[in-house]
Design a protein that fits this description.
This protein is of the alpha+beta class. It contains ten helices and 14 strands. It has helices spanning about 40-55, 65-75, 80-95, 145-150, 190-195, 205-220, 225-240, 250-255, 260-270, 305-310, and strands at about 5-15, 55-60, 105-110, 115-125, 135, 140-145, 160-165, 175-180, 200, 245, 280, 290-295, 300-305, 335-340. The strands form four sheets. A seven-stranded antiparallel sheet has the order 1-3-4-7-8-2-9, sandwiched between helices. Helix 2 packs antiparallel against helix 3 (about 80-95), helix 3 (about 80-95) packs across helix 5 (about 190-195) and helix 8 packs antiparallel against helix 9 (about 260-270).
């Protein structure tokens, strides 16, 4: 698992409230919370699980933004974790819309493999239980991390939103990953991505979908068995036309590819720049390649047919053809693809999910 190397360092908790809901408002901690009794490992496992299933790459956008700037301060000077995390919590309280629920914001110094990073997570309270702050002997306020284990990270609660911001050159935009389990489908709440994090998605969904489609067609046309090529080509078109909003090479392989070829499919797409990570499907750039199957032969013969012609048996690829009226092309099949030219790249941006 790609995110299995995420490791937590110090953790600071703050409480934010929804603008339209009664509550204590913004409650800040003065010191980091103490991790004990396996809590670090448990919290890590939940963060890793969320990132492994849903993470999308992001980039800082425009001039220096408050949250990336605070994260850079934490990376440059670990002792600044508490004041920098307070600025992050204050910014979230200011920019989140009224319909957003309150919760706990977790800011943690961390590592991702050999790279230093900062984790920012927004978590819900477990059904009506209010987080209780602890006042230390010197008057400093903090949250008991036991809350995370007993109230916030139970199997019945949800990790709302997670951002993993990575260390990099100081003169370059900050990069990282985002998860939003609260958004519909596989979207990202715009306020959290743009207004709070000051970032944008690194790749648009329509371009990722086109890249997936092109790489999958390239792989299936390397298969020697013409019947298998046709079956996989139809499966690819069916998946593009399906109501599934999320697409990934690993899920596609499990549904459609022979078990002994699944790893090869995923690795082939990864070598062509398609990560196994799920992403939102947007067929805008490939939709005119999904209505028909096109078969090209070595000598230049082209056969085009509606996808249902293959599905109902009127178009057969292979050595045997059933009795009846037939068209026989005696040639070697070079490739099987969706029909049509690739449209120009869309100039529109990717739509985010409704804010929550």
């Amino acid at each position: 698992m790609r995110f299995a190397t995420v490791q937590l360092g110090q953790v600071v908790l703050h409480q934010v409230s929804g603008r339209n809901s009664p509550g204590a408002g913004l409650v800040l901690s003065d010191v980091a919370s103490e991790l004990r009794d396996g809590q670090r490992e448990y919290i890590q496992s939940r963060i890793r699980r969320a990132l492994a299933q849903y993470a999308r790459p992001i980039l800082e956008e425009g001039p220096p933004q408050p949250v990336p700037a605070a994260a850079q301060a934490i990376l440059a000077a670990p002792g600044s974790l508490v004041p920098a995390s307070q600025r992050i919590a204050e910014h979230l309280q200011q920019v989140q819309p009224g319909i957003s629920p309150g919760g706990i914001i977790v800011v943690a110094a961390s590592t991702f493999g050999a790279q230093h990073a900062v984790i920012i997570a927004k978590l819900e309270h477990e059904l009506g239980v209010r987080a209780q702050q602890t006042v230390l002997a010197d008057g400093s306020r903090t949250f008991d991390v036991q809350l995370l284990h007993d109230l916030l990270f139970t199997e019945g609660s949800r990790v709302f939103k997670v951002a993993l911001l990575l260390d990099g050159p100081t003169d370059a935009p900050m990069s990282g990953f985002i998860v939003d389990n609260q958004a519909a489908g596989f979207g990202v709440a715009q306020y959290f991505l743009f207004d709070f994090l000051g970032c944008t998605l690194a790749e648009r969904a329509d371009r990722l979908t086109e890249k997936f489609h092109t790489a999958a067609e390239s792989w299936l046309n390397q298969q020697a068995d013409p019947q298998k090529r046709g079956r996989y080509a139809i499966a690819l078109i069916a998946e593009m036309q399906s109501p599934h909003r999320v697409l990934s090479s690993s899920d596609f392989a499990q549904r459609y590819i022979a078990p002994d070829e699944q790893d090869d499919f995923v690795l082939s797409l990864e070598s062509q720049g398609v990560s196994p990570q799920p992403f939102t499907k947007d067929t805008t750039l490939v939709e005119n390649r999904l209505s028909q199957v096109r078969i090209d032969t070595d000598s230049g013969i082209i056969v085009s047919a509606p996808t249902e012609a293959y599905e109902d048996g009127r178009l057969v690829l292979g050595d045997s053809i059933d009795d009846g009226a037939t068209i026989v092309v005696r040639d070697r099949i070079r490739q099987v693809t969706g029909r049509g030219r690739r449209p120009r790249a869309s100039s529109r941006g990717e739509n985010g999910a409704a804010d929550e």
